[in-house]
Amino acid sequence: MAQETVLDYLGEALEESDFEFDWKLEWNKRQHAIELYFSIFAENKENHVVIEDVEGTANEGEIIQFEDAICFFDPKKSKIQMDNYLKAFPFDFKMGIEKGYIDAVLKTLRIVVTEGQSDLLDFATDPAIDTFELNWNDTNFYGTIKTLKDINRYSEEKLIYPKY
After folding, report:
1. Contact indicator for 50, 11 with CB cutoff of 8 Å
2. Residue 59 and residue 160: Cα distance in Å, rounded?
3. Could you tell me the mean pLDDT of each successive run of 10 residues in the chain, 164 residues long?
4. Which domains does the chain have, with CATH numbers?
5. How many H-runs (helices) and E-runs (strands) does the chain carry?
6. Alpha-carbon distance values, 93 to 40, 52, 62, 98 (Å)
7. How many CA atoms lie within 13 A of 67 on its CB side?
8. In whole angstroms, how far apart are CA 133 and each of 43, 73, 127, 148, 154?
9. Helix or strand or coil: residue 36?
10. Are 14 and 22 in contact (CB under 8 A)?
11. 114 Cβ partners below 8 Å, 6+ apart?
12. Cα–Cα distance between 137 and 59 in angstroms, integer?
């Protein structure tokens, strides 16, 4: 039986997690990276308010969509722009990455996006709030890893990078 890949495990975990946000998983073969894009939405009740993203793209519709991404990459082969992601996780594709680490990433991502959804709703309804962004919290992430290990729910089973 073939060893499970990061891409397979992530896809299955995302399907089973029933996240309350839209997501898309992409394998960027050229950059030796696996990218997880996710989107949250809020109603723009003040339809006359124009909202611009960091690139200057205006959103004048009734719905505000915010998209961000995390990335798993091989620092020896990838040439990614770290600031294009909410968080980028380096790992050696030959050595693999532990399932428990992926589980901690997804648990932390759920918290970050849930808080972000609330913040986006505040942003959409409170004219005093002039910026919105998601914030990854490394302290919570490493705390999640520790907790999973403490309660024996951290799997050290390695996931490999997919083969072409």
Report:
1. no
2. 40
3. 85 92 94 94 72 72 89 92 95 92 97 95 87 94 98 96 81
4. 6-159 (3.40.50.11250)
5. 3, 8
6. 30, 37, 43, 11
7. 11
8. 16, 23, 16, 28, 30
9. strand
10. no
11. 20
12. 28
pLDDT at 7: 94
For residue 85, give the nearest of 136, 127, 129, 128 by alpha carbon: 136
* Dist CA 70 CA 82 (whole Å): 10
Q: Using alpha carbons, list the distances in angstroms from residue 2 to 50, 103, 133, 157.
A: 51, 21, 40, 14
Q: Residue 18: CB partners within 8 Å, gap ≥ 6?
A: none
Residue 90 confidence (pLDDT): 95
Distance CA 86, CA 71 (A): 8
